[in-house]
TrEMBL record:
GO molecular function, one term: carbohydrate derivative binding
Classification lineage: Bacteria, Pseudomonadati, Pseudomonadota, Alphaproteobacteria, Rhodobacterales
Native species: Primorskyibacter sedentarius
Catalytic reaction equation(s): alpha-D-glucose 6-phosphate = beta-D-fructose 6-phosphate
Gene: pgi
Pathway: Carbohydrate degradation; glycolysis; D-glyceraldehyde 3-phosphate and glycerone phosphate from D-glucose: step 2/4; Carbohydrate biosynthesis; gluconeogenesis
Record's protein name: Glucose-6-phosphate isomerase
Pfam families: PGI
Any one GO BP annotation for this protein: glycolytic process
Annotated function: Catalyzes the reversible isomerization of glucose-6-phosphate to fructose-6-phosphate.
Length: 535
Protein backbone atom coordinates (compact mmCIF):
# COMPACT_ATOMS: atom_id res chain seq x y z
CA UNK A 1 0.00 0.00 0.00
CA UNK A 2 1.50 3.36 -1.02
CA UNK A 3 0.76 6.95 -0.11
CA UNK A 4 -0.50 7.45 -3.66
CA UNK A 5 -3.03 4.67 -3.08
CA UNK A 6 -4.29 6.49 0.01
CA UNK A 7 -4.48 9.83 -1.80
CA UNK A 8 -6.32 8.23 -4.70
CA UNK A 9 -8.84 6.68 -2.31
CA UNK A 10 -9.42 10.02 -0.60
CA UNK A 11 -9.75 11.84 -3.91
CA UNK A 12 -12.28 9.30 -5.15
CA UNK A 13 -14.72 10.22 -2.37
CA UNK A 14 -13.86 13.89 -1.99
CA UNK A 15 -17.12 15.12 -3.51
CA UNK A 16 -19.29 12.46 -1.91
CA UNK A 17 -21.48 14.03 0.75
CA UNK A 18 -21.01 12.30 4.08
CA UNK A 19 -24.75 12.46 4.69
CA UNK A 20 -25.20 9.75 2.08
CA UNK A 21 -23.23 7.37 4.28
CA UNK A 22 -25.92 7.70 6.95
CA UNK A 23 -28.46 6.15 4.59
CA UNK A 24 -27.05 2.98 6.13
CA UNK A 25 -28.72 2.73 9.54
CA UNK A 26 -25.64 1.03 10.99
CA UNK A 27 -23.29 3.90 10.06
CA UNK A 28 -23.17 5.63 13.46
CA UNK A 29 -22.50 2.50 15.50
CA UNK A 30 -20.32 0.89 12.86
CA UNK A 31 -17.96 3.86 12.81
CA UNK A 32 -17.90 4.48 16.56
CA UNK A 33 -15.97 2.66 19.25
CA UNK A 34 -16.81 2.23 22.94
CA UNK A 35 -13.90 1.52 25.29
CA UNK A 36 -13.03 2.29 28.91
CA UNK A 37 -16.30 4.16 29.37
CA UNK A 38 -15.66 6.50 26.42
CA UNK A 39 -17.22 6.67 22.98
CA UNK A 40 -15.12 7.71 19.99
CA UNK A 41 -17.38 8.58 17.04
CA UNK A 42 -15.69 8.98 13.66
CA UNK A 43 -18.84 8.41 11.60
CA UNK A 44 -18.90 12.08 10.51
CA UNK A 45 -15.90 11.54 8.24
CA UNK A 46 -15.74 10.27 4.67
CA UNK A 47 -14.06 7.06 5.81
CA UNK A 48 -16.09 4.09 4.65
CA UNK A 49 -15.50 0.37 5.12
CA UNK A 50 -13.07 0.20 2.19
CA UNK A 51 -11.08 3.21 3.37
CA UNK A 52 -10.93 1.84 6.91
CA UNK A 53 -9.68 -1.51 5.63
CA UNK A 54 -7.01 0.30 3.62
CA UNK A 55 -5.93 2.32 6.67
CA UNK A 56 -5.74 -0.81 8.83
CA UNK A 57 -3.59 -2.45 6.18
CA UNK A 58 -1.30 0.60 6.13
CA UNK A 59 -0.90 0.27 9.91
CA UNK A 60 -0.10 -3.44 9.57
CA UNK A 61 2.45 -2.84 6.83
CA UNK A 62 4.11 -0.22 9.04
CA UNK A 63 4.37 -2.87 11.80
CA UNK A 64 2.49 -0.75 14.33
CA UNK A 65 1.82 -3.72 16.58
CA UNK A 66 5.45 -4.84 16.60
CA UNK A 67 6.72 -1.31 17.22
CA UNK A 68 4.18 -0.88 20.02
CA UNK A 69 5.43 -4.07 21.68
CA UNK A 70 9.03 -2.90 21.31
CA UNK A 71 8.21 0.37 23.04
CA UNK A 72 6.55 -1.27 26.02
CA UNK A 73 9.37 -3.82 26.27
CA UNK A 74 12.02 -1.13 26.66
CA UNK A 75 13.64 -1.33 23.23
CA UNK A 76 15.61 1.78 22.29
CA UNK A 77 13.16 2.97 19.66
CA UNK A 78 14.42 6.57 20.02
CA UNK A 79 17.39 5.58 17.92
CA UNK A 80 18.81 9.05 17.18
CA UNK A 81 19.48 9.40 20.92
CA UNK A 82 19.91 5.72 21.71
CA UNK A 83 17.12 5.70 24.30
CA UNK A 84 14.17 3.59 25.30
CA UNK A 85 10.76 5.28 25.38
CA UNK A 86 9.11 4.32 28.66
CA UNK A 87 6.85 7.04 29.98
CA UNK A 88 4.38 4.16 30.16
CA UNK A 89 6.48 2.65 32.96
CA UNK A 90 5.68 5.70 35.13
CA UNK A 91 2.04 4.59 35.29
CA UNK A 92 2.73 0.85 35.53
CA UNK A 93 1.36 0.79 39.07
CA UNK A 94 1.20 -3.01 39.20
CA UNK A 95 4.98 -3.13 38.83
CA UNK A 96 5.14 -5.70 36.02
CA UNK A 97 8.82 -5.96 35.02
CA UNK A 98 10.12 -3.56 32.39
CA UNK A 99 13.67 -4.36 31.29
CA UNK A 100 16.14 -1.74 30.07
CA UNK A 101 19.75 -2.78 29.48
CA UNK A 102 19.11 -6.03 31.30
CA UNK A 103 17.67 -4.51 34.48
CA UNK A 104 14.09 -4.14 35.71
CA UNK A 105 13.40 -0.41 36.05
CA UNK A 106 10.11 -0.80 37.92
CA UNK A 107 11.44 -0.95 41.52
CA UNK A 108 13.11 2.41 40.95
CA UNK A 109 10.02 3.87 39.30
CA UNK A 110 7.73 2.86 42.14
CA UNK A 111 10.20 4.00 44.80
CA UNK A 112 10.47 7.34 43.03
CA UNK A 113 6.69 7.69 42.93
CA UNK A 114 6.42 6.92 46.64
CA UNK A 115 9.12 9.45 47.45
CA UNK A 116 7.54 12.21 45.37
CA UNK A 117 4.03 11.55 46.70
CA UNK A 118 5.35 11.52 50.27
CA UNK A 119 6.83 15.00 49.80
CA UNK A 120 3.61 16.22 48.19
CA UNK A 121 1.60 14.93 51.14
CA UNK A 122 4.02 16.57 53.58
CA UNK A 123 3.39 19.90 51.86
CA UNK A 124 -0.36 19.29 51.88
CA UNK A 125 -0.69 18.22 55.52
CA UNK A 126 1.66 20.85 56.90
CA UNK A 127 4.50 18.50 57.85
CA UNK A 128 6.66 20.54 55.51
CA UNK A 129 6.13 23.98 56.99
CA UNK A 130 8.64 26.08 55.15
CA UNK A 131 9.80 29.10 57.13
CA UNK A 132 6.37 30.69 57.46
CA UNK A 133 4.64 27.90 59.35
CA UNK A 134 2.76 26.47 56.35
CA UNK A 135 2.75 26.37 52.55
CA UNK A 136 -0.20 28.15 50.97
CA UNK A 137 1.09 28.50 47.40
CA UNK A 138 3.25 26.47 45.04
CA UNK A 139 5.00 27.99 42.02
CA UNK A 140 6.13 25.49 39.37
CA UNK A 141 8.89 26.91 37.17
CA UNK A 142 9.51 24.97 33.95
CA UNK A 143 8.97 25.19 30.23
CA UNK A 144 7.74 22.86 27.51
CA UNK A 145 6.99 19.43 28.92
CA UNK A 146 7.97 20.61 32.39
CA UNK A 147 5.13 23.13 32.29
CA UNK A 148 2.44 22.28 29.74
CA UNK A 149 1.55 18.88 31.16
CA UNK A 150 1.21 19.70 34.86
CA UNK A 151 -0.32 23.10 34.12
CA UNK A 152 -2.93 21.52 31.84
CA UNK A 153 -3.76 18.70 34.24
CA UNK A 154 -3.89 20.92 37.33
CA UNK A 155 -6.44 23.18 35.65
CA UNK A 156 -8.38 20.20 34.31
CA UNK A 157 -8.74 18.65 37.77
CA UNK A 158 -9.71 21.82 39.62
CA UNK A 159 -12.72 20.11 41.32
CA UNK A 160 -10.26 17.82 43.08
CA UNK A 161 -8.01 20.53 44.49
CA UNK A 162 -7.73 20.43 48.26
CA UNK A 163 -4.12 21.43 48.66
CA UNK A 164 -2.15 24.67 48.32
CA UNK A 165 -2.84 26.93 45.34
CA UNK A 166 -0.64 26.08 42.35
CA UNK A 167 0.82 28.58 39.90
CA UNK A 168 2.92 27.98 36.79
CA UNK A 169 5.71 30.09 35.29
CA UNK A 170 7.26 29.20 31.95
CA UNK A 171 7.98 32.25 29.79
CA UNK A 172 11.34 33.96 30.19
CA UNK A 173 9.46 37.23 29.72
CA UNK A 174 9.84 38.88 33.12
CA UNK A 175 6.17 39.78 33.07
CA UNK A 176 5.24 36.15 33.63
CA UNK A 177 7.11 35.63 36.86
CA UNK A 178 6.43 39.18 38.07
CA UNK A 179 2.70 38.78 37.63
CA UNK A 180 2.75 35.33 39.25
CA UNK A 181 4.74 36.29 42.32
CA UNK A 182 2.88 39.53 42.87
CA UNK A 183 0.59 39.03 45.84
CA UNK A 184 2.26 35.83 47.06
CA UNK A 185 4.01 35.61 50.43
CA UNK A 186 7.58 34.29 50.11
CA UNK A 187 7.42 32.77 53.59
CA UNK A 188 4.49 30.52 52.66
CA UNK A 189 5.44 29.76 49.04
CA UNK A 190 7.15 26.61 47.78
CA UNK A 191 8.97 26.93 44.43
CA UNK A 192 9.46 23.85 42.26
CA UNK A 193 12.15 24.15 39.59
CA UNK A 194 11.51 21.57 36.87
CA UNK A 195 14.47 21.06 34.56
CA UNK A 196 16.01 17.67 33.90
CA UNK A 197 19.51 19.08 33.41
CA UNK A 198 19.00 22.16 35.58
CA UNK A 199 20.46 24.21 32.74
CA UNK A 200 17.38 25.21 30.69
CA UNK A 201 18.01 28.93 30.24
CA UNK A 202 14.40 30.14 30.56
CA UNK A 203 13.75 27.99 33.63
CA UNK A 204 16.99 28.85 35.41
CA UNK A 205 16.58 32.57 34.72
CA UNK A 206 13.14 32.43 36.32
CA UNK A 207 14.44 30.27 39.17
CA UNK A 208 17.15 32.79 40.06
CA UNK A 209 14.57 35.60 39.98
CA UNK A 210 12.31 33.60 42.30
CA UNK A 211 15.21 32.93 44.65
CA UNK A 212 16.04 36.64 44.80
CA UNK A 213 12.36 37.37 45.54
CA UNK A 214 12.34 34.71 48.24
CA UNK A 215 15.52 36.06 49.86
CA UNK A 216 13.85 39.40 50.55
CA UNK A 217 11.81 37.85 53.38
CA UNK A 218 13.18 34.36 53.98
CA UNK A 219 16.37 33.59 55.88
CA UNK A 220 17.22 30.49 53.85
CA UNK A 221 15.51 30.90 50.46
CA UNK A 222 16.76 27.61 48.98
CA UNK A 223 15.05 25.74 51.82
CA UNK A 224 11.72 26.58 50.20
CA UNK A 225 12.74 25.23 46.82
CA UNK A 226 12.30 21.73 45.43
CA UNK A 227 13.66 20.48 42.13
CA UNK A 228 12.69 17.95 39.51
CA UNK A 229 16.06 17.24 37.98
CA UNK A 230 18.65 14.55 37.39
CA UNK A 231 21.57 16.82 38.35
CA UNK A 232 22.22 16.60 42.09
CA UNK A 233 25.39 18.62 41.52
CA UNK A 234 23.66 21.61 39.99
CA UNK A 235 20.67 21.50 42.33
CA UNK A 236 23.14 21.33 45.21
CA UNK A 237 24.98 24.36 43.89
CA UNK A 238 21.63 26.16 43.87
CA UNK A 239 21.22 25.22 47.53
CA UNK A 240 18.42 22.65 47.25
CA UNK A 241 18.84 19.73 49.65
CA UNK A 242 18.99 16.31 47.99
CA UNK A 243 15.86 15.08 49.80
CA UNK A 244 13.87 17.70 47.86
CA UNK A 245 15.29 16.71 44.46
CA UNK A 246 13.26 14.25 42.40
CA UNK A 247 14.78 12.78 39.27
CA UNK A 248 13.65 10.68 36.33
CA UNK A 249 15.44 8.61 33.72
CA UNK A 250 16.51 9.62 30.23
CA UNK A 251 13.94 7.23 28.78
CA UNK A 252 11.22 9.69 29.82
CA UNK A 253 10.85 12.47 27.25
CA UNK A 254 9.93 15.94 28.43
CA UNK A 255 6.51 16.10 26.75
CA UNK A 256 5.68 12.67 28.19
CA UNK A 257 6.90 13.34 31.70
CA UNK A 258 4.00 14.56 33.85
CA UNK A 259 3.26 10.97 34.96
CA UNK A 260 6.33 11.12 37.20
CA UNK A 261 8.03 13.77 39.35
CA UNK A 262 7.24 16.49 36.79
CA UNK A 263 3.69 16.06 38.09
CA UNK A 264 4.72 17.16 41.60
CA UNK A 265 2.66 20.36 41.50
CA UNK A 266 -0.37 18.33 40.40
CA UNK A 267 0.25 15.87 43.25
CA UNK A 268 0.29 18.73 45.72
CA UNK A 269 -2.93 20.16 44.31
CA UNK A 270 -5.02 16.96 44.24
CA UNK A 271 -3.20 14.57 46.59
CA UNK A 272 -1.51 11.22 46.16
CA UNK A 273 -4.68 9.12 45.87
CA UNK A 274 -6.13 11.26 43.07
CA UNK A 275 -2.75 11.35 41.33
CA UNK A 276 -2.57 7.55 41.42
CA UNK A 277 -6.09 7.45 39.94
CA UNK A 278 -4.77 9.68 37.14
CA UNK A 279 -2.00 7.12 36.55
CA UNK A 280 -4.49 4.25 36.69
CA UNK A 281 -6.51 5.85 33.93
CA UNK A 282 -3.45 6.09 31.70
CA UNK A 283 -2.47 2.53 32.59
CA UNK A 284 -5.93 1.33 31.53
CA UNK A 285 -5.47 3.00 28.14
CA UNK A 286 -2.01 1.40 27.87
CA UNK A 287 -3.59 -2.00 28.44
CA UNK A 288 -6.29 -1.32 25.86
CA UNK A 289 -3.69 -0.15 23.35
CA UNK A 290 -1.52 -3.23 23.88
CA UNK A 291 -4.22 -5.90 24.01
CA UNK A 292 -6.86 -4.81 21.48
CA UNK A 293 -6.83 -5.66 17.79
CA UNK A 294 -6.27 -2.77 15.43
CA UNK A 295 -9.87 -2.64 14.20
CA UNK A 296 -11.17 -1.99 17.75
CA UNK A 297 -8.20 -0.07 19.14
CA UNK A 298 -9.11 3.50 20.07
CA UNK A 299 -5.63 5.10 19.74
CA UNK A 300 -5.09 3.30 16.44
CA UNK A 301 -8.41 4.42 14.99
CA UNK A 302 -7.86 8.00 16.17
CA UNK A 303 -4.45 7.92 14.47
CA UNK A 304 -5.84 6.46 11.26
CA UNK A 305 -8.48 9.17 11.06
CA UNK A 306 -5.62 11.67 11.37
CA UNK A 307 -3.64 9.91 8.63
CA UNK A 308 -6.70 9.88 6.35
CA UNK A 309 -7.28 13.59 6.77
CA UNK A 310 -3.69 14.81 6.68
CA UNK A 311 -1.75 12.47 4.40
CA UNK A 312 -4.78 11.22 2.42
CA UNK A 313 -7.00 14.27 1.97
CA UNK A 314 -4.23 16.85 2.33
CA UNK A 315 -5.90 18.78 5.17
CA UNK A 316 -2.95 20.51 6.81
CA UNK A 317 -4.47 21.49 10.16
CA UNK A 318 -6.46 19.85 12.92
CA UNK A 319 -8.69 21.70 15.39
CA UNK A 320 -8.98 20.24 18.91
CA UNK A 321 -12.18 21.54 20.48
CA UNK A 322 -12.86 20.44 24.07
CA UNK A 323 -16.28 21.47 25.31
CA UNK A 324 -14.90 21.69 28.82
CA UNK A 325 -13.52 24.95 30.17
CA UNK A 326 -11.17 23.07 32.48
CA UNK A 327 -9.56 21.53 29.40
CA UNK A 328 -8.71 24.96 28.03
CA UNK A 329 -4.99 24.14 28.07
CA UNK A 330 -5.43 20.74 26.40
CA UNK A 331 -5.11 22.06 22.82
CA UNK A 332 -1.78 23.69 23.71
CA UNK A 333 -0.63 20.49 25.40
CA UNK A 334 -1.61 18.39 22.38
CA UNK A 335 -0.03 20.97 20.10
CA UNK A 336 3.33 20.25 21.69
CA UNK A 337 2.70 16.51 21.89
CA UNK A 338 1.88 16.24 18.20
CA UNK A 339 3.97 18.95 16.59
CA UNK A 340 7.18 18.38 18.56
CA UNK A 341 6.83 14.62 18.15
CA UNK A 342 5.82 14.36 14.49
CA UNK A 343 7.00 17.67 13.08
CA UNK A 344 9.89 16.00 11.25
CA UNK A 345 11.18 16.14 7.69
CA UNK A 346 13.26 12.97 7.49
CA UNK A 347 12.47 9.31 8.06
CA UNK A 348 14.30 7.02 10.49
CA UNK A 349 16.92 6.35 7.78
CA UNK A 350 17.71 10.07 7.51
CA UNK A 351 16.25 10.52 4.04
CA UNK A 352 13.61 13.16 3.27
CA UNK A 353 10.01 12.08 3.75
CA UNK A 354 7.99 11.51 0.60
CA UNK A 355 4.78 12.62 2.34
CA UNK A 356 3.79 15.48 4.61
CA UNK A 357 4.50 14.88 8.29
CA UNK A 358 2.34 15.95 11.24
CA UNK A 359 -0.45 18.53 10.93
CA UNK A 360 -0.74 21.94 12.55
CA UNK A 361 -2.69 21.36 15.78
CA UNK A 362 -4.65 24.18 17.36
CA UNK A 363 -7.87 24.92 19.17
CA UNK A 364 -9.76 26.49 22.05
CA UNK A 365 -12.56 25.29 24.30
CA UNK A 366 -16.19 25.51 23.23
CA UNK A 367 -18.32 27.46 23.32
CA UNK A 368 -15.81 30.32 23.19
CA UNK A 369 -14.42 29.20 19.85
CA UNK A 370 -17.87 29.41 18.28
CA UNK A 371 -17.68 33.18 18.66
CA UNK A 372 -14.13 33.38 17.37
CA UNK A 373 -12.84 31.06 14.63
CA UNK A 374 -15.72 28.69 13.85
CA UNK A 375 -16.77 31.10 11.10
CA UNK A 376 -13.72 30.03 9.09
CA UNK A 377 -14.30 26.35 9.91
CA UNK A 378 -17.89 26.48 8.66
CA UNK A 379 -17.65 28.81 5.66
CA UNK A 380 -13.98 29.27 4.89
CA UNK A 381 -12.39 27.94 1.72
CA UNK A 382 -10.19 25.37 3.51
CA UNK A 383 -11.41 22.19 5.16
CA UNK A 384 -10.32 21.86 8.78
CA UNK A 385 -11.02 18.50 10.44
CA UNK A 386 -12.37 19.05 13.96
CA UNK A 387 -11.99 16.88 17.04
CA UNK A 388 -14.75 17.57 19.56
CA UNK A 389 -14.75 16.22 23.09
CA UNK A 390 -17.29 16.61 25.86
CA UNK A 391 -18.30 15.06 29.18
CA UNK A 392 -21.79 13.67 29.71
CA UNK A 393 -21.83 15.21 33.18
CA UNK A 394 -20.20 18.23 34.77
CA UNK A 395 -19.04 18.76 38.35
CA UNK A 396 -21.64 21.37 39.26
CA UNK A 397 -25.04 19.67 39.70
CA UNK A 398 -26.63 22.98 40.61
CA UNK A 399 -25.59 24.23 37.17
CA UNK A 400 -26.73 21.20 35.19
CA UNK A 401 -28.65 23.45 32.81
CA UNK A 402 -25.32 25.02 31.81
CA UNK A 403 -23.92 21.59 30.98
CA UNK A 404 -27.00 20.66 28.98
CA UNK A 405 -26.49 23.77 26.86
CA UNK A 406 -22.78 22.97 26.52
CA UNK A 407 -23.46 19.46 25.20
CA UNK A 408 -26.16 20.75 22.84
CA UNK A 409 -23.69 23.24 21.37
CA UNK A 410 -21.00 20.59 20.93
CA UNK A 411 -23.29 18.17 19.12
CA UNK A 412 -24.87 20.97 17.09
CA UNK A 413 -21.50 22.08 15.75
CA UNK A 414 -20.56 18.63 14.49
CA UNK A 415 -24.03 18.24 12.97
CA UNK A 416 -23.74 21.64 11.25
CA UNK A 417 -20.34 20.71 9.81
CA UNK A 418 -21.85 17.51 8.48
CA UNK A 419 -25.13 18.87 7.09
CA UNK A 420 -24.36 22.40 6.04
CA UNK A 421 -27.12 24.50 4.46
CA UNK A 422 -27.89 24.37 0.75
CA UNK A 423 -28.55 27.37 -1.47
CA UNK A 424 -32.17 26.32 -1.85
CA UNK A 425 -32.59 26.19 1.92
CA UNK A 426 -30.98 29.61 2.22
CA UNK A 427 -33.26 31.03 -0.50
CA UNK A 428 -36.36 29.80 1.32
CA UNK A 429 -35.08 31.26 4.58
CA UNK A 430 -34.57 34.69 3.02
CA UNK A 431 -37.90 34.55 1.17
CA UNK A 432 -39.59 33.88 4.51
CA UNK A 433 -37.91 37.04 5.76
CA UNK A 434 -39.43 39.08 2.94
CA UNK A 435 -36.49 39.34 0.53
CA UNK A 436 -37.12 39.13 -3.21
CA UNK A 437 -35.27 39.24 -6.51
CA UNK A 438 -31.55 39.90 -6.71
CA UNK A 439 -31.33 40.89 -3.06
CA UNK A 440 -32.84 37.57 -1.99
CA UNK A 441 -30.23 35.78 -4.09
CA UNK A 442 -27.38 37.86 -2.70
CA UNK A 443 -28.46 37.42 0.91
CA UNK A 444 -29.06 33.70 0.43
CA UNK A 445 -25.55 33.08 -0.90
CA UNK A 446 -24.06 34.59 2.25
CA UNK A 447 -25.99 32.03 4.29
CA UNK A 448 -24.90 28.88 2.45
CA UNK A 449 -22.86 26.41 4.49
CA UNK A 450 -20.97 23.89 2.34
CA UNK A 451 -21.22 21.18 5.01
CA UNK A 452 -19.57 17.83 4.28
CA UNK A 453 -16.79 18.86 6.65
CA UNK A 454 -15.33 16.09 8.82
CA UNK A 455 -15.27 15.84 12.57
CA UNK A 456 -14.83 13.28 15.31
CA UNK A 457 -16.37 13.35 18.79
CA UNK A 458 -15.03 11.85 22.00
CA UNK A 459 -17.65 11.58 24.76
CA UNK A 460 -16.76 10.53 28.31
CA UNK A 461 -18.84 10.31 31.51
CA UNK A 462 -17.10 12.99 33.60
CA UNK A 463 -13.68 14.61 33.76
CA UNK A 464 -12.21 12.71 36.72
CA UNK A 465 -8.50 12.08 37.39
CA UNK A 466 -8.85 8.59 35.93
CA UNK A 467 -10.66 9.84 32.84
CA UNK A 468 -8.09 12.58 32.23
CA UNK A 469 -5.36 9.94 32.40
CA UNK A 470 -7.19 7.90 29.78
CA UNK A 471 -7.63 10.87 27.46
CA UNK A 472 -4.00 11.99 27.62
CA UNK A 473 -2.68 8.45 27.12
CA UNK A 474 -5.10 8.04 24.19
CA UNK A 475 -3.51 11.00 22.45
CA UNK A 476 0.03 9.92 23.34
CA UNK A 477 -0.52 6.58 21.65
CA UNK A 478 -2.25 8.25 18.71
CA UNK A 479 0.91 10.30 18.12
CA UNK A 480 3.03 7.15 18.40
CA UNK A 481 0.94 5.27 15.82
CA UNK A 482 1.02 8.19 13.38
CA UNK A 483 4.78 8.43 13.78
CA UNK A 484 5.27 4.72 13.11
CA UNK A 485 3.13 4.92 9.97
CA UNK A 486 5.09 7.95 8.78
CA UNK A 487 8.35 6.13 9.51
CA UNK A 488 9.75 8.90 11.72
CA UNK A 489 11.21 9.15 15.23
CA UNK A 490 8.48 10.74 17.36
CA UNK A 491 10.71 10.96 20.43
CA UNK A 492 13.51 13.37 19.57
CA UNK A 493 13.21 17.12 18.97
CA UNK A 494 16.26 18.44 17.19
CA UNK A 495 14.17 21.22 15.71
CA UNK A 496 14.28 23.16 18.97
CA UNK A 497 18.08 23.27 19.10
CA UNK A 498 19.15 25.78 16.44
CA UNK A 499 17.07 28.67 17.78
CA UNK A 500 18.39 28.01 21.30
CA UNK A 501 21.98 28.09 20.04
CA UNK A 502 21.44 31.34 18.16
CA UNK A 503 19.68 32.93 21.15
CA UNK A 504 22.73 32.19 23.27
CA UNK A 505 25.00 33.91 20.77
CA UNK A 506 22.62 36.88 20.42
CA UNK A 507 22.34 37.51 24.16
CA UNK A 508 25.52 39.64 24.40
CA UNK A 509 24.60 41.40 21.15
CA UNK A 510 21.17 42.46 22.42
CA UNK A 511 22.75 43.48 25.73
CA UNK A 512 25.03 45.83 23.79
CA UNK A 513 28.17 44.04 24.96
CA UNK A 514 29.32 42.87 21.52
CA UNK A 515 28.65 43.80 17.93
CA UNK A 516 26.33 42.04 15.50
CA UNK A 517 29.03 41.18 12.98
CA UNK A 518 28.27 38.01 11.10
CA UNK A 519 24.51 38.39 11.48
CA UNK A 520 22.21 38.95 8.53
CA UNK A 521 21.13 42.50 7.69
CA UNK A 522 17.62 42.03 9.04
CA UNK A 523 18.85 40.78 12.42
CA UNK A 524 21.46 43.58 12.64
CA UNK A 525 18.94 46.33 11.97
CA UNK A 526 16.44 44.84 14.43
CA UNK A 527 19.13 44.78 17.13
CA UNK A 528 20.00 48.39 16.32
CA UNK A 529 16.37 49.41 16.70
CA UNK A 530 16.08 47.61 20.05
CA UNK A 531 19.27 49.19 21.40
CA UNK A 532 18.13 52.68 20.37
CA UNK A 533 14.88 52.29 22.27
CA UNK A 534 16.04 50.54 25.44
CA UNK A 535 16.16 52.55 28.59
Amino acid sequence: MTWDDLKDAAEAVRTRHMLTLFEDDTRADGFSLDALGMRFDYSKTNIDAAARAMLIEIAREARVEAKRDEMFAGAKINDTEGRAVLHTALRNLDGDPVIVDGADVMPGVLDGLDKTVAFAEAVRDGSFTGQGGKITDVVNIGIGGSDLGPAMATLALAPYHDGPRCHFVSNVDGAHIADTLRGLDPTTTLVIVASKTFTTIETMTNARTAKAWMSEKVTDPAAQFAAVSTSLEKTGDFGIASERVFGFEDWVGGRYSMWGPIGLALMIAIGGDAFRAFLRGAQAMDTHFRATKLEENMPVLLALVGIWHNQGCGYATRAVLPYDQRLSRLPAYLQQLEMESNGKRVAMDGFTLDVDSGPVVWGEPGTNGQHAFYQLIHQGTRVIPCEFMVAAEGHEPELAHHHTLLIANCLAQSEALLRGRSLDEARKMMADKGFTGDELERQARHRVFPGNRPSTTLVYPQLTPEMLGQIVALYEHRVFVEGVILGINSFDQWGVELGKELATSLGPVVAGETGAEGKDASTRTLVEFVLRHRG
